[in-house]
C-alpha cells in the first residue's frame, strides 16, 4: 500500500437539521496508514461528521467516497463491510454477549468475508488490546475502560482499512488513558490501519497524531501538523472562545 | 447445555414420546393438557424468537397462527393440493407435512411482506403497534374473503378421520422439540450472533456490518413460520377454522405471557412458561369455573410483580441468554 | 442449567397430578347419569349462558323429581347430575371445556353450548371421544356437512327462518307492505349466514333491499348507517346484531329522529336487557326467538311462568334449552344406555313427542326443524306473531307520535 | 356506486362522526399520557372505561346520582385509583428494562377487571336509562344526539384541563418533558415515579370521564372495553404519541373516517380501513398527523 493513496475523501459535505447547519462544506482526505486527530469545541460537528461517514446520517449535500468509490448514503452495514470501522462516544458493546462474541461480530459480519478464519481473527484482536483474559466475561459486567478496548478489538477484528475513533478516552483515568494510547499506537503499528480520531483531550492528540483537523461550528478551520494547528489563529480563537475545558 | 442436562432432556422427551402407549393415557385428561402445552410452547418459542432473541416486540402472532390455520383449511376444503387423490383418500391432508409447511410458508411470506415496510420504518413500540394493526386488518380481510375464506363463518374441514388425539400429541411434541432444537442451533450459529447483536444495540450492529433490516425481517418471518405451522396443527384438532377462533387475540397474548413468565430470550423459558401458565389456567378453569379468568389475571399480575425476569432467570441467576 | 431438570421434573409431576386428579374425580359409574354441558359462564356470551344453565338445571331437576331416567342396562331409574364447564364464550375454549368434562368429570353424555361455531367445535371433540352431544342453536348448514355420528341437532334453517318477515309482510294490507326494506347484519358467522338467507328469501318473495350493509361488531357509531338508511327512504329494517349493538342503533335512530314502521331484530332484540335498556322505546320492535311461553305444547306455559317468577321477565330461549335436555334424557331412556352409538340410533330418524318446543322429528342426518319465532315487544312482553300467534302486528309510528 | 350526496348529508355525517370520535379521543388522551411517560401500551384502558361506566350506573340506580353529575365523583376517584394502580402494580415494573413486564401487568389487569365486572354485574348488556337517553338536539341545522354532544363537551373540557395542567404547572411541565425524554424530567428534579404516577392518575381519571360518556350513550358489557383500547391506540397514533391535543384530534379524525367508510363503502370495511390508515401513519408520519415540523434545538 502506498503512503499517498487516498482512502477516504469527503467533498463539500454539508449537513443540516431543520434550520441548523451542523456541517458546512467539509473537505477531508484520509490517506493510507495515517493517524489523524479531529478536534474542535463542543458542538463543532465532530460526531455528526462520523455519523455522516458511516451513513447513520445522509449528508444534505456533498459526497463521501472510500477508495475512489462513492459511498454517500449507502447502508451503514455496507460501509462497515467495505472497510470502515468505528467506535462510539457513548460506548456501544453488545451487553448480553461475552467479550469474545462481541469481537466475533466484527470478525464475521464487519469483515464482510475478508477474514477467512473468524475465530482466530477475533482471538488475535482481543490479544492485541489486552483482553484475552476476559474473553468469556459478559460485557455487561466489564469496566468502561475494558468496554472501550473491546470496541476497538471488535473494530480491529473486522479487518478495516480505516478506523474512526470517537473519543475513546472519555471517562478514563490517567492509567487507562495511557493504556488506550498504547493500544492505538499498537493497532496502527501492527495492522497499518488508518485512523481518524475524535478527541476532547487535545494534548493526547498532539502527542500521537501526525496530522490534526480542527472543526468549529461545522466548518473546517485547520488541517495540518500538530505544530501548524497550535499556531493557527482561528484555532486559538475557537478554543479561547469556549469556557475553559 | 451441559452433558448431563442433555441426557435429562433426551430422557424426558423419550418418556413423553412413549406416554401414549401407557394404558389409559390417551383418554386421560393430562393427555390433551399436554397437547395444548406443546402447542402453546411452540407459539411461545415463536414469539420468543422475534421478541426475546430479536428484541422486536410483535403483537401480531395471532395473525400468523391464523394464516397457517387458514392455509391448511383452504387447501383442504378447496381441494388444491393432491386434488384428484382427495376423493379416494379423504385423509390425505391429515397431518400432511407439505400442508403444514405450506401453512408456515404462507405465514412467513406475509411476515416478509409486512415486515419489510414495518421494520424499515418502525422501531420499538411503533413496531408493536403496527403488528397489532396488521393483525386486525388480516382478520377483517378473512371475514370479507367470500367463499375463498368462508367469510365470517370460516371453513369446516372434514373431521371423520379424527378419532384419537395420539397423532396430535406426537406431532405437537415433535414440533415443540424441533422448534427448540432449531432455535438452539440457530442461536449458536452466526445468524444467532447477528440477532443478539441487533437486539443489544442496533446501531453498533449495523456499524459492524450487520444488515439489521434483513436480520430483523428474517427473525420476524421465522417466528411467523413457526406460528403458521402451529396454526396448521391446531386446524387438525379444531377442524373449524373461523376468524373468531384462529385470529383470537389469545393466540398472541397467552404465548407472550408464557414466554415472559418462563423467561424471554432463554431456550427453555417458553416451554416452562407454557407448562406452568397453562397448568394454572386449567386448574383455575376446573376448580373455579365461574370466575377463573379473575384468577388468571391475578396470576399474571403476581408473576410479573414478583418474578419480572421470568422463572428461568429468577431461579438460575447465571442462566445464559444465548 | 439445573433448571431444565427441575423444570421438566416439575412439569411431569404437575401433569401426572392433573391426570391423577382426573381419575379421582371419576365417579363410581352406575349409580347416576352424569350429563355435561359446556356453557359460556364467562366472556361476552355469559348472559346467554346464564339462561342456558338455568334451563338445563330446571330440566334435570324435573327429571330427577320424576325419579330419574329409566336405564335398561342398570335395570332401574338413575338420577341425573348436571356438570357444567366454562367455554369462555370462545370457540377455542369449547374444546378444552369438553376435554375437561369428558376426561376429568367423566360425563356420560353432553348438552350443547350456545351459538353455531362453538357447537361445531364441541361436536367435533365429542365425536372423537364417542360421547353423545345433543345440540340446539347451530345452523344445520354449519353442522350437517361434518356428517357426525355422535351429535344431533334441532334448530331452524336460516332459510325458513329468514322467510318469517316476508311471510308476515305477505299478510299485511297493501298500504302497510314495506316498499324500501333494508338489511343490516353484523359481520359474524351467524350474521353472515342469516344475511345470505335474507337475500335469498327477499328474492323469493319479490322484495329487494334498498340498503344491504354489514356492520362491524362493537361499532359505537351508527350515525353514518342511519344517514344512509334515511337517504334511501327505508321503511322496514331487518337487523341482525348483538344486544348492545342493536340497542345503540335504536337509541341513535331515536336521537336522529329516524323511525321505520317495521323493525325486526335477530339475536340482539329478544333479551330482557334489550327491553330494560330501551324502556318504552322497545315497543313495536319485532324480535326472533327459539321458543315462546305461549306455545300450546306440554310444559311450555309452566316453564315460562317459572322463569318469570324467578327473573321477573319472559324468555324466548329457555324452552329450546330445556327441550334439548328433554330430548337427550328421552333418548337415553330409549337407548337403554348412555352409549353414544345407542343414543344415535334412538334419535336419528326418530320422533320425540311433547317437548316444550312441540314434537321433534329428526331426519336421517340427525336434524329436526323447529320454527323460528317472531314476537312483537309490547309493554315489556313478547307477543307471539309467528308461528300462529294470537297478536296482531302494530306498525310503529314516528318517534314523536308514540 | 353512490354519487356525492347533498351537503346536508355530508354535514350530518361529519358532525356525528366527529362527536362519536371524540370518545376515542378522550380515551386516547389518557393513553397518550401513560404511553408518553412510561412507554406502556396500557391495554386495560378500555376495561377501566367500562368499569367507570358500571360505577356511574351503580351511582345512578343506587343513589340516584345523575350520570353527568357523577363526573364530580368519578373523575376524582379515577385520579386516586390511577395513582394507586401505578404505586401498587407498575412502580416496580417501570424500573425494569424489559417493558414486556408492564405490558403484561396491563393485560393481567384487563383480564382481572373484565371478569370481576362479569362476576359482580353479570355478562349481559347493561345500560343507563335517564330522561334524556336517546333524545336528539339540533346543531347547525343538523339533528344529532344529546348525550353524544355532552360526550364531546366532556372530551373537549377534559383535554383542555389536561392541557392547562401540562402547560401551566411545574409538575405538568415535567410530565410533558418526560414524554419526550425521561432524563430531562429527572433533571428538573422530579422523580420519574412521580411523573409516572401523575400520568396514570390523569389517564385513569380520563377513563372515568370517558366512562360517563359511554354510560350515557351506549349499553355496555364487561368486554366492550377492548375495542375502545384498540381504537384509542389508533387515535393516539394518528395524533402523534405524546401529543395530547393531537390524541383528541386523532380520535375525531378516526370517527370521521369510520363514518365516511360506513356511508360510502360498507360497514364491513371500517375496521380494516381504520387500521390501514393507522399503519400508513405509523410508517410515513410516525410523529402523527398534527405535529409541527421537526425542529432540532
UniProtKB/TrEMBL annotation, chain A:
<dbReference type="GO" id="GO:0042941">
    <property type="term" value="P:D-alanine transmembrane transport"/>
</dbReference>
<protein>
    <submittedName>
        <fullName>Leucine/isoleucine/valine transporter subunit ATP-binding component of ABC superfamily</fullName>
    </submittedName>
</protein>
<dbReference type="GO" id="GO:0005886">
    <property type="term" value="C:plasma membrane"/>
</dbReference>
<keyword id="KW-0547">Nucleotide-binding</keyword>
<dbReference type="InterPro" id="IPR003439">
    <property type="entry name" value="ABC_transporter-like_ATP-bd"/>
</dbReference>
<keyword id="KW-0067">ATP-binding</keyword>
<dbReference type="GO" id="GO:0016887">
    <property type="term" value="F:ATP hydrolysis activity"/>
</dbReference>
<dbReference type="InterPro" id="IPR051120">
    <property type="entry name" value="ABC_AA/LPS_Transport"/>
</dbReference>
<dbReference type="InterPro" id="IPR027417">
    <property type="entry name" value="P-loop_NTPase"/>
</dbReference>
<feature type="domain" description="ABC transporter">
    <location>
        <begin position="8"/>
        <end position="242"/>
    </location>
</feature>
<dbReference type="GO" id="GO:0005304">
    <property type="term" value="F:L-valine transmembrane transporter activity"/>
</dbReference>
<dbReference type="GO" id="GO:0005524">
    <property type="term" value="F:ATP binding"/>
</dbReference>
Automatic annotation (TrEMBL), chain B:
<protein>
    <submittedName>
        <fullName>Inner-membrane translocator</fullName>
    </submittedName>
</protein>
<dbReference type="GO" id="GO:0015658">
    <property type="term" value="F:branched-chain amino acid transmembrane transporter activity"/>
</dbReference>
<keyword id="KW-0472">Membrane</keyword>
<dbReference type="GO" id="GO:0005886">
    <property type="term" value="C:plasma membrane"/>
</dbReference>
<dbReference type="Pfam" id="PF02653">
    <property type="entry name" value="BPD_transp_2"/>
</dbReference>
<dbReference type="InterPro" id="IPR001851">
    <property type="entry name" value="ABC_transp_permease"/>
</dbReference>
<keyword id="KW-1133">Transmembrane helix</keyword>
<feature type="transmembrane region" description="Helical">
    <location>
        <begin position="293"/>
        <end position="312"/>
    </location>
</feature>
<feature type="transmembrane region" description="Helical">
    <location>
        <begin position="29"/>
        <end position="50"/>
    </location>
</feature>
<feature type="transmembrane region" description="Helical">
    <location>
        <begin position="57"/>
        <end position="78"/>
    </location>
</feature>
<feature type="transmembrane region" description="Helical">
    <location>
        <begin position="217"/>
        <end position="239"/>
    </location>
</feature>
<feature type="transmembrane region" description="Helical">
    <location>
        <begin position="7"/>
        <end position="23"/>
    </location>
</feature>
UniProtKB/TrEMBL annotation, chain C:
<protein>
    <submittedName>
        <fullName>Extracellular ligand-binding receptor</fullName>
    </submittedName>
</protein>
<comment type="similarity">
    <text>Belongs to the leucine-binding protein family.</text>
</comment>
<keyword id="KW-0029">Amino-acid transport</keyword>
<dbReference type="GO" id="GO:0006865">
    <property type="term" value="P:amino acid transport"/>
</dbReference>
<keyword id="KW-0813">Transport</keyword>
<dbReference type="InterPro" id="IPR051010">
    <property type="entry name" value="BCAA_transport"/>
</dbReference>
<keyword id="KW-0732">Signal</keyword>
<keyword id="KW-0675">Receptor</keyword>
<feature type="signal peptide">
    <location>
        <begin position="1"/>
        <end position="28"/>
    </location>
</feature>
<feature type="domain" description="Leucine-binding protein">
    <location>
        <begin position="32"/>
        <end position="365"/>
    </location>
</feature>
<dbReference type="Pfam" id="PF13458">
    <property type="entry name" value="Peripla_BP_6"/>
</dbReference>
<dbReference type="InterPro" id="IPR028082">
    <property type="entry name" value="Peripla_BP_I"/>
</dbReference>
TrEMBL record, chain D:
<keyword id="KW-1003">Cell membrane</keyword>
<keyword id="KW-0472">Membrane</keyword>
<feature type="transmembrane region" description="Helical">
    <location>
        <begin position="232"/>
        <end position="256"/>
    </location>
</feature>
<dbReference type="GO" id="GO:0022857">
    <property type="term" value="F:transmembrane transporter activity"/>
</dbReference>
<feature type="transmembrane region" description="Helical">
    <location>
        <begin position="42"/>
        <end position="62"/>
    </location>
</feature>
<dbReference type="Pfam" id="PF02653">
    <property type="entry name" value="BPD_transp_2"/>
</dbReference>
<dbReference type="GO" id="GO:0005886">
    <property type="term" value="C:plasma membrane"/>
</dbReference>
<keyword id="KW-1133">Transmembrane helix</keyword>
<feature type="transmembrane region" description="Helical">
    <location>
        <begin position="13"/>
        <end position="35"/>
    </location>
</feature>
<comment type="similarity">
    <text>Belongs to the binding-protein-dependent transport system permease family. LivHM subfamily.</text>
</comment>
<feature type="transmembrane region" description="Helical">
    <location>
        <begin position="101"/>
        <end position="122"/>
    </location>
</feature>
<keyword id="KW-0029">Amino-acid transport</keyword>
Amino acid at each position: 500500500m502506498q503512503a499517498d493513496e487516498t482512502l477516504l475523501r469527503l467533498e463539500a459535505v454539508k449537513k443540516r437539521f431543520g434550520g441548523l447547519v451542523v456541517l458546512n462544506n467539509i473537505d477531508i482526505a484520509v490517506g493510507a496508514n495515517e493517524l489523524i486527530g479531529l478536534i474542535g469545541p463542543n458542538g463543532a460537528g465532530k460526531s455528526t461528521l462520523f455519523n455522516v461517514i458511516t451513513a447513520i446520517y445522509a449528508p444534505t449535500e456533498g459526497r463521501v467516497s472510500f477508495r475512489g468509490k462513492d459511498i454517500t448514503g449507502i447502508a451503514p452495514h455496507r460501509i462497515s463491510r467495505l472497510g470502515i470501522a468505528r467506535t462510539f462516544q457513548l460506548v456501544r458493546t453488545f451487553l448480553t454477549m461475552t467479550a469474545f462474541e462481541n469481537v466475533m461480530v466484527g470478525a464475521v459480519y464487519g469483515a464482510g468475508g475478508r477474514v477467512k478464519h473468524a475465530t482466530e481473527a477475533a482471538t488475535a484482536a482481543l490479544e492485541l488490546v489486552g483482553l484475552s483474559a476476559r474473553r468469556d466475561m459478559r460485557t455487561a459486567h466489564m469496566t468502561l475502560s475494558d468496554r472501550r478496548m473491546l470496541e476497538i478489538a471488535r473494530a480491529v477484528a473486522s479487518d478495516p482499512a480505516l478506523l474512526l475513533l470517537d473519543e475513546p478516552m472519555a471517562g478514563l483515568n490517567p492509567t487507562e488513558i495511557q493504556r488506550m494510547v498504547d493500544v492505538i499506537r499498537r493497532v496502527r503499528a501492527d495492522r497499518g490501519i488508518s485512523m481518524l480520531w475524535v478527541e476532547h483531550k487535545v494534548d493526547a492528540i498532539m502527542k500521537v497524531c501526525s496530522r490534526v483537523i480542527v472543526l468549529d461550528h461545522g466548518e473546517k478551520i485547520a488541517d495540518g501538523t500538530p505544530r501548524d494547528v497550535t499556531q493557527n489563529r482561528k484555532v486559538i480563537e475557537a478554543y479561547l472562545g469556549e469556557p475553559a475545558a | 447445555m451441559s452433558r448431563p442436562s442433555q441426557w435429562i432432556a433426551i430422557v424426558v422427551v423419550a418418556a413423553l414420546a412413549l406416554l401414549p402407549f401407557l394404558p389409559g393415557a390417551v383418554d386421560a385428561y393430562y393427555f390433551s393438557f399436554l397437547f395444548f402445552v406443546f402447542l402453546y410452547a411452540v407459539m411461545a418459542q415463536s414469539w420468543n424468537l422475534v421478541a426475546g432473541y430479536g428484541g422486536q416486540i410483535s403483537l401480531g402472532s395471532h395473525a400468523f397462527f391464523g394464516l397457517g390455520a387458514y392455509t391448511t383449511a383452504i387447501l383442504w376444503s378447496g381441494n388444491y393440493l393432491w386434488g384428484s387423490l382427495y376423493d379416494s383418500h379423504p385423509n390425505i391432508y391429515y397431518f400432511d407435512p407439505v400442508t403444514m409447511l405450506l401453512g408456515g410458508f404462507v405465514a412467513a411470506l406475509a411476515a416478509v411482506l409486512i415486515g419489510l415496510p414495518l421494520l424499515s420504518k418502525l422501531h420499538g413500540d411503533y413496531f408493536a403497534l403496527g403488528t397489532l394493526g396488521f393483525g386486525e386488518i388480516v382478520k377483517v380481510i378473512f371475514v370479507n374473503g367470500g367463499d375463498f375464506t368462508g367469510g365470517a363463518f370460516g371453513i369446516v374441514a372434514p373431521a371423520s378421520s379424527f378419532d384419537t388425539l395420539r397423532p396430535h400429541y406426537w406431532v405437537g411434541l415433535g414440533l415443540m422439540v424441533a422448534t427448540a432444537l432449531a432455535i438452539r442451533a440457530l442461536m449458536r450459529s452466526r445468524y444467532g450472533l447477528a440477532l443478539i447483536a441487533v437486539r443489544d444495540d442496533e446501531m453498533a450492529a449495523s456499524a459492524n456490518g450487520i444488515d439489521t433490516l434483513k436480520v430483523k425481517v428474517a427473525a420476524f418471518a421465522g417466528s411467523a413460520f413457526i406460528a403458521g405451522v402451529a396454526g396448521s396443527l391446531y386446524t387438525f384438532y379444531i377442524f373449524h377454522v373461523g376468524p373468531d377462533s384462529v385470529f383470537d387475540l389469545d393466540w398472541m397474548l397467552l404465548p407472550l405471557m408464557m414466554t415472559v413468565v418462563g423467561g424471554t430470550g432463554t431456550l427453555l423459558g417458553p416451554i416452562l412458561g407454557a407448562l406452568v401458565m397453562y397448568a394454572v389456567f386449567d386448574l383455575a378453569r376446573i376448580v373455579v369455573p365461574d370466575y377463573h379468568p379473575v384468577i388468571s389475571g391475578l396470576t399474571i399480575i403476581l408473576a410479573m410483580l414478583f418474578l419480572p425476569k421470568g422463572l428461568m432467570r429468577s431461579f438460575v441467576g447465571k442462566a445464559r441468554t444465548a | 442449567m439445573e433448571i431444565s431438570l427441575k423444570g421438566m421434573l416439575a412439569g411431569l409431576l404437575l401433569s401426572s397430578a392433573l391426570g391423577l386428579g382426573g381419575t379421582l374425580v371419576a365417579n363410581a359409574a352406575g349409580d347416576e347419569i352424569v350429563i355435561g354441558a359446556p356453557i359460556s359462564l364467562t366472556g361476552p356470551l355469559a348472559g346467554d349462558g346464564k339462561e342456558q344453565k338455568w334451563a338445563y338445571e330446571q330440566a334435570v331437576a324435573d327429571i330427577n323429581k320424576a325419579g330419574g331416567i329409566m336405564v335398561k342396562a342398570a335395570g332401574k331409574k338413575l338420577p341425573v347430575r348436571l356438570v357444567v364447564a366454562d367455554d369462555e364464550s370462545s370457540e377455542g375454549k369449547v374444546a378444552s371445556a369438553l376435554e375437561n368434562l369428558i376426561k376429568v368429570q367423566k360425563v356420560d353424555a353432553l348438552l350443547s353450548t350456545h351459538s353455531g361455531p362453538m357447537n361445531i367445535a364441541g361436536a367435533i371433540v365429542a365425536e372423537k371421544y364417542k360421547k353423545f352431544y345433543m345440540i340446539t342453536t347451530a345452523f344445520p348448514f354449519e353442522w350437517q356437512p361434518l356428517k357426525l355420528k355422535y351429535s344431533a341437532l334441532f334448530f331452524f334453517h336460516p332459510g325458513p327462518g329468514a322467510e318469517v318477515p316476508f311471510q308476515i309482510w305477505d299478510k299485511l294490507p297493501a298500504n302497510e307492505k314495506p316498499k324500501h326494506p333494508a338489511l343490516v347484519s353484523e359481520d359474524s358467522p351467524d350474521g353472515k349466514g342469516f344475511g345470505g338467507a335474507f337475500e335469498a328469501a327477499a328474492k323469493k318473495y319479490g322484495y329487494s333491499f334498498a340498503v344491504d350493509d354489514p356492520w362491524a361488531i362493537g361499532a359505537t357509531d351508527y350515525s353514518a348507517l342511519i344517514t344512509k338508511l334515511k337517504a334511501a327512504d327505508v321503511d322496514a329494517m331487518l337487523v341482525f346484531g348483538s344486544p348492545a349493538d342493536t340497542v345503540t342503533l335504536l337509541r341513535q335512530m331515536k336521537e336522529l329522529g329516524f323511525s321505520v314502521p317495521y323493525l325486526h331484530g335477530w339475536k340482539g332484540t329478544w333479551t330482557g336487557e334489550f327491553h330494560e335498556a330501551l324502556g318504552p322505546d322497545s315497543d313495536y320492535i319485532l324480535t326472533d326467538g327459539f321458543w315462546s311461553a305461549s306455545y300450546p305444547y306440554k310444559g311450555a306455559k309452566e316453564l315460562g311462568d317459572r322463569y318469570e317468577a324467578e327473573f321477573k321477565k319472559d324468555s324466548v330461549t329457555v324452552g329450546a334449552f330445556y327441550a334439548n335436555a328433554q330430548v337427550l334424557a328421552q333418548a337415553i331412556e330409549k337407548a337403554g344406555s348412555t352409549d353414544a352409538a345407542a343414543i344415535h340410533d334412538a334419535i336419528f330418524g326418530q320422533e320425540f313427542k311433547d317437548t316444550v318446543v312441540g314434537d321433534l322429528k329428526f331426519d336421517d342426518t340427525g336434524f329436526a326443524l323447529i320454527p323460528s319465532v317472531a314476537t312483537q315487544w309490547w309493554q315489556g312482553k313478547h307477543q307471539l306473531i309467528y308461528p300462529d300467534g294470537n297478536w296482531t302486528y302494530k306498525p310503529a309510528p314516528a318517534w314523536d307520535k308514540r | 356506486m353512490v354519487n356525492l350526496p347533498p351537503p346536508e348529508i355530508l354535514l350530518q355525517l361529519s358532525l356525528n362522526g366527529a362527536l362519536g370520535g371524540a370518545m376515542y379521543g378522550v380515551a386516547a388522551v389518557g393513553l397518550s399520557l401513560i404511553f408518553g411517560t412510561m412507554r406502556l401500551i396500557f391495554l386495560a384502558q378500555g376495561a377501566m372505561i367500562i368499569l367507570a361506566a358500571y360505577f356511574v350506573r351503580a351511582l345512578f340506580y343506587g343513589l340516584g346520582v345523575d350520570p353527568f353529575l357523577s363526573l364530580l365523583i368519578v373523575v376524582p376517584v379515577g385520579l386516586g385509583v390511577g395513582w394507586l394502580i401505578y404505586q401498587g402494580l407498575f412502580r416496580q415494573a417501570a424500573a425494569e428494562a424489559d417493558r414486556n413486564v408492564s405490558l403484561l401487568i396491563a393485560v393481567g389487569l384487563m383480564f382481572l377487571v373484565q371478569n370481576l365486572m362479569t362476576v359482580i354485574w353479570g355478562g349481559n348488556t347493561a345500560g343507563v336509562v335517564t330522561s334524556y337517553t336517546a333524545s336528539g338536539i339540533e346543531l347547525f341545522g343538523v339533528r344529532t344526539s344529546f348525550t353524544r354532544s355532552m360526550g364531546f363537551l366532556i372530551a373537549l373540557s377534559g383535554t383542555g384541563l389536561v392541557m392547562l395542567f401540562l402547560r401551566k404547572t411545574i409538575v405538568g411541565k415535567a410530565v410533558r418533558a418526560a414524554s419526550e425524554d425521561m432524563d430531562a424530567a429527572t433533571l428538573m428534579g422530579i422523580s420519574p415515579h412521580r411523573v409516572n404516577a401523575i400520568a396514570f392518575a390523569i389517564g385513569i381519571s380520563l377513563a372515568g370521564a370517558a366512562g360517563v360518556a359511554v354510560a350515557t350513550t351506549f349499553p355496555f358489557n364487561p368486554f366492550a372495553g377492548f375495542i375502545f383500547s384498540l381504537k384509542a391506540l389508533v387515535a393516539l397514533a394518528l395524533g402523534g404519541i405524546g401529543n395530547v391535543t393531537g390524541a383528541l384530534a386523532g380520535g375525531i379524525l378516526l370517527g370521521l373516517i369510520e363514518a365516511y367508510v360506513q356511508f360510502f363503502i360498507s360497514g364491513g370495511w371500517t375496521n380494516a380501513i381504520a387500521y390501514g390508515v393507522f399503519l400508513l401513519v405509523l410508517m410515513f408520519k410516525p410523529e402523527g398527523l398534527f405535529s409541527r415540523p421537526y425542529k432540532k434545538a
